[in-house]
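Input.
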Amino acid sequence: MLTKLLNRLMGLFISEQNEKADMDTKVKSLTINLASITFTLVVLSEGVWSLAVERVELAIPFLFLSFLLALSHLFLRKFNEDLHQNYLLFILWLTCSFFVLFGGNVGSGATWTLLFPFFATALQGRRNGLRWSLLLFLVMLLHLSLIQNSQAFFQNYSSAQGVYLLAIYAVATLIAFAFQFIRSEVLLEKEGLLLDSQNRNRAQEDLLSRLSHQIRTPLSNITGVLDMLTNTDLDPQQKEYISTIHASANNLVGVVNHLVMASHSDASEDKDITSFNLYNTLNNVLRLFPYEKFKVRFNLLLAPDIPGQLTGNSVKIKQILLNLINSIAAQNKAEQKQITLEVRNRDLMPGKTELTFSLTSDFVFQSPDDRHSGEGFFNNQDLARLNAGRIIHFLDLGLTQKMIEVDGHNLSIIPYPNRTVFEFGAGFSTHTGPFSAPASKTNTQNSNSFKRKVELKDASILLVEDNFSNQQIMNLYIKNDVKKVETASNGKEALEKFGMARFDLILMDVQMPIMDGFKATQKIRELEKSTNTHVPIIAVTANAFPEDKERCLASGMDDYISKPFQPDELLDKIRQHLNG
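Output.
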């Protein structure tokens, strides 16, 4: 009971803006507020006491020091910089020096100086804290050796009292230094373990990404050949075998996706901190959404007080929003789905802002088992948490929730009879300037370039793929539906063939030797500027994250398909861009 009470009391001394800070910041916040409040009360009490006993020579300095301490406390609750910490330490040093020189009303005020080394080392670290402590020790030494006998109003200590005071202060300084040393070593070890853990996670993520890429490519070939086998003359038993193999391959794809996504989202550090425009970022999210799979109508609402430029992890925000939108759309059984994305400015401070992202959908979760709603011992908050947990499980949003909680925010789910609201917060650094929606520059080159409409059966396709087996499989997918298929083994060879012949569409692998697909696409787009033409390029890759698609689109590609895929999916995309 007493421990809980003391914990709550200590929590009151931590500034609100530091409640979710790291441990070192919390300790400094606690120390600053505890020191300033403690000494303010002590000095104020001494000042009032001095007035009561009519000792004006003590009352005026004590009341003035209490005013300075109160001022520093109010000031430091808003700002926590080194300059203000030094200011507080100077006032504390001045107060302790005054206690040493004048002793206070009962002559024992010097005992308060024993707290000074602990506050000094906690705020300034071992080196600077020791300097402040030695400075006060020097004042004690000067007072005992020279000052105390010079004037009658100075506090007079006997030799034994002086030696005792210096000795106990030296011991307090040594204990404070040792405590800070142990604390620093523990924090250093903790930080080292955290960095090691992050390095291991990063290595695991890279390994799983490579494995995913290596597994997806042969899986794509297997599923493709199985699809083509399904269209041949097979007896019922053979069709059953093919169907079983196909289902097993698809299950393996799902396992790989979950493994890689789990590793990819387990990022306790922000690796992609950039300055970005929120309007452009949200537009990119909507562009990345697979409209061909879901019939969704979007509404985008942005608060007018959102800063024009933000600094933070825009890739992570995009991934969270895409995960939410994809999960909601996939489980929404409505014929015409509707999703409203609203962004509000929750808290605006100098240089920082907290945004709330709210997704409102006509998706309604029908709980198969809702026994607890009528039981009186479950309050509304417990039921809300219970239903939110069910929805997270139903929509498979566990990884998305984890990504949000890494930064200290929460995924809130508020179900209504006819809609469901998903909310989460995110913090960013800001630049000056109000929010403004910039003029759209998307695909300006495409709109000004000439693009021929071609029927699929008359199309000439350039397939850029470094793996010979993949070339054969892709040829099998499309050769019977198009006029001609030319192959290139890398980006450089693709550029040479593009310069010598006319192609209606390019299927571009991303990871290739000599020149990768991104560089090849950029070169092709540069060549097209002189001819005012535009050949559609579709990325065909085993990289399956949302940011992979975004990178493909940013390099100048028109579309993206990740392995494994069905032959009909590829043909539909080709047909779409040939007729576009």
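The CA atoms of residues 67 and 154 lie 23 Å apart.
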